[in-house]
Specification:
Elements lengths: L1 H19 L5 E2 L8 H10 L3 E8 L9 E5 L5 E2 L4 E7 L5 E3 L11 H10 L3 E9 L7 E6 L2 E5 L2 E2 L4 E3 L3 E8 L4 E3 L8 H10 L3 E7 L10 E6 L7 E3 L3 E7 L8
Parallel strand pairs: 2-5, 7-12, 14-17
Antiparallel strand pairs: 1-4, 3-5, 6-11, 8-9, 8-12, 9-10, 13-16, 15-17
Length: 250
């Protein structure tokens, strides 16, 4: 009788193990930086459920890329476990022009830094003569359209986060500055120095294959900088850039 009871209890426990997958653990993949469609297909093959519970916009990153997951990759979980992920947005966040700080008549350098903190890039489109001001913003252009000048702002303008605003900046007549040395600096650093010194970024020539221009290094500049030669403000400085790993060694 005791043997019969023992066999019944043992059979029940074995049945529960099969029914609940007790003791069965599967290794969870790390899906971070993977496209959500590819990750979902892989999860289904492994009997997991992938659920998107949030999304966020990251400038320069395509939509549908997994940023984090819970549980984390490398964990052991049961079949049919729900995996919650956060992905990048397919549509970028937008900034209303009305929400930007005052720009017309303001110092270019200060406002450029302020716009950068709001994930908006700036570029000096051209310089205009103004005897009463120097390096102040006169016009703002976006996607080839004038959106702000002394007459005011255009209404209902939304700017994509990470976009470039082209600015027309004032300059006193006949000004000149020493040409800044740019070789060896990143493209972003060189563009900033060119604009701060009231020159314009001219032609940018890529040497070899450059995957990310933000990381590119200035290989040469025209005109060259010798610490003495100067250039009329508003003149263009042309650049040749290369990937860091392809930079010439001297």
């Amino acid at each position: 009788m005791l043997l019969f009871v023992f066999l019944i209890i043992f059979g029940i426990f074995q049945w529960l193990k099969v029914y609940t997958n007790h003791g069965q653990r599967l290794l969870l993949e790390d899906y971070i930086d993977t496209n959500i469609d590819d990750a979902t297909a892989d999860a289904e093959r492994n009997l997991f459920q992938l659920i998107v519970n949030d999304s966020t916009h990251i400038v320069g990153k395509p939509g549908g890329i997994i940023l984090n997951q819970n549980p984390k990759g490398g964990s052991y979980i049961k079949e049919n476990r729900k995996i919650y992920v956060t992905i990048t947005k397919y549509s970028p966040d937008m900034i209303n022009l009305e929400d930007l700080p005052r720009l017309y008549g303001e110092d270019y350098t200060m406002k450029s830094r302020e716009l950068n903190s709001r994930q908006l890039k700036t570029n000096i489109k051209s310089m205009k003569y103004d005897p009463l001001s120097n390096s102040t913003i006169l016009e703002v252009w976006y996607n080839g359209e004038l959106i702000l000048d002394k007459k005011g702002k255009r209404e209902s303008i939304e700017i994509e986060k990470g976009a470039v605003l082209d600015l027309v900046v004032s300059q006193p007549e006949g000004g000149s500055r020493v040409i800044p040395p740019l070789e060896g600096k990143t493209l972003g650093e060189a563009q900033f120095l060119i604009q701060v010194n009231e020159f314009l970024v001219g032609e940018i020539v890529e040497i070899g294959n450059i995957e990310n221009r933000e990381d590119a290094i200035v290989e040469r500049q025209y005109p060259e900088a010798d610490g003495v030669s100067s250039l009329t403000t508003g003149s263009k400085i042309n650049l040749e850039i290369k990937s860091p790993e392809k930079r010439l060694q001297f």
